[in-house]
Write a structure and sequence with these properties.
7-stranded mixed beta sheet, 412 residues, binds NADP nicotinamide-adenine-dinucleotide phosphate, 14 strands, 7-stranded parallel beta sheet, alpha/beta
Length: 412
């Protein structure tokens, strides 16, 4: 259906902070012959971005579209096989484009970490996308690619060994260094405001199965709340504290399980934490991390402290500089134990600021995967997750791009 499109990939939001990085990544890494384009609401600023991308992008078409103008989004969706969107906050700006792509049978990938937006997209666009054949894939950046692919790889390893279903599974962020952009802050604050204003939305985002395709069919595994303070895990021999992105990543991973007919297992208990060693200093470090997270969340919640932080933190369009982006990194471990009692460990790691340098690799490769690897992708359409839309094909691409994604069985 989409073979007749003018373009293979379009980056919508190319004038934004992360949009420029993704466009730059594609200009540097898309194979020759890939027809790419840039989209946004100002032709002039798009031309400036394109001029900074070098010779590879010199002939890329520029498409003018605005989130508030559905006909322009319909034209954008019809122009390409794949649209990647970095136009956020997504809850405010994103749904009309998802709808346009779902209707046009155009694959779509974004960087959202907003649970309320993904839920909206599922409720309004799943059926349309499933009918048209569009793959709508949210969370194709640091939220939630490492989590979603890491757990998928553990499932594939256990299945290959005939080692049973995944049961207790813990993702621990062991090291992370990076910055934050104004667009990410605006998205965080937007979701905070909405949740504070409505008890129903609070209840929704607190639900571990908030993104389930069939809430009533989800298993009852007891308390699955995200960790909100410090704890020692004797089995894993580590202190752990909260991880800021657990609230979205865990829901995406549980959705992946459900979309695959609960292939990971009906007793798959999943959590995400910040991991520390078992050293004497570890509980203090974990407590400091937990307290720091709560302080930032509280600071962004209330008018006066938000205004103060607003003066210190980046505005929309701004983000971490070149040095922060290149010296950043993340190292994630995912531990699981299967129904047969076999233990596995996944490592997911990359050099580069997780939310910007590494994320532009993840979203750029997701775009190429959707555009170029179609015959290797799972036969699914609808509102999907990175694991259920692209799975092993995206993992292979990320490895080839220098990211680490490995699994190994641990001795008992
Ligand atoms: N999941 C992750 O790991 C991850 C990592 C990084 C970022 N993000 C998310 O990515 C999003 C973008 O972040 P950012 O820092 O790049 O934000 P940003 O610099 O503020 O960029 C926002 C982009 O949206 C465009 N835009 C705004 N309103 C629009 C409209 N009505 N129509 C068309 N375009 C419009 C802006 O265009 P103009 O230039 O015309 O204003 C700009 O290109 C945020 O939601 C952030 O949370 C996620």
């Amino acid at each position: 259906m989409s073979g007749d499109r003018e373009l293979d990939v379009v980056v919508f939001g190319a004038t934004g902070f992360v949009g420029r990085l993704v466009a730059g990544y594609l200009a540097g890494h898309a194979p020759g012959g890939v027809r790419a384009g840039l989209a946004g609401r100002s032709q002039r600023r798009l031309a400036e971005v394109r001029a900074g991308l070098g010779a590879a992008a010199a002939a890329w078409p520029l498409l003018v579209a605005d989130s508030a103008d559905p006909p322009s989004l319909a034209a954008l969706a019809r122009a390409a096989r794949v649209v990647v969107s970095t136009v956020g906050p997504y809850r405010a700006q994103g749904l009309a484009l998802v709808r346009a792509c779902a209707e046009a049978g155009t694959d779509y990938a974004d960087l959202t970490g907003e649970v309320l937006f993904i839920r909206d997209s599922i409720d309004h666009c799943y059926d349309v996308a499933a009918r048209s054949g569009a793959r709508i894939v949210h969370g194709c950046g640091f939220d939630s690619v490492p989590s979603d692919l890491g757990v998928l790889l553990l499932h594939l390893a256990a299945r290959a060994d005939d080692a049973g279903d995944l049961q207790d599974t813990t993702l621990a962020v062991m090291a992370l260094r990076g910055g934050i952009s104004g667009g990410t802050l605006a998205s965080l604050m937007g979701q905070q405001d909405e949740v504070r204003a409505s008890a129903a939305r609070r209840q929704m985002v607190a639900d571990p199965y908030a993104l389930s395709p069939d809430r009533a069919a989800e298993p009852d595994l007891g308390d699955e709340r995200d960790l909100d303070w410090v704890r020692y895990d004797g089995g894993l021999r580590m202190w752990m504290g909260p991880f800021a992105m657990a609230g979205v990543n865990t829901r995406v991973v549980r959705r992946s399980n459900a979309l695959q007919g609960w292939a990971y297992g009906r007793r798959f208990r999943y959590r995400e934490v910040t991991g520390f060693s078992a050293s004497p200093a570890a509980p203090l470090l974990a407590a400091m991390t937990g307290a720091g997270l709560k302080t930032v969340q509280a600071g962004l919640e209330f008018g006066p402290s938000r205004a103060l932080l607003g003066r210190l933190l980046p505005a929309p369009g701004q983000g971490p500089g070149e040095k922060t982006r290149s010296t950043g990194y993340f190292r994630i471990q995912i531990h699981t134990r299967t129904s047969a009692g076999v233990r596995y460990l996944a490592a997911v790691e990359a050099q580069g600021d997780p939310g910007y340098a590494a994320t532009s690799v993840m979203l750029g490769q997701a775009a190429l995967c959707l555009a170029l690897d179609r015959d290797q992708l799972p036969g699914r359409a609808g509102v999907l997750t990175p694991a259920t839309a692209m799975g092993a094909a995206l993992a292979a691409r990320l490895r080839a791009a220098g990211h680490t994604l490995t699994t190994r069985q641990l001795t008992q």
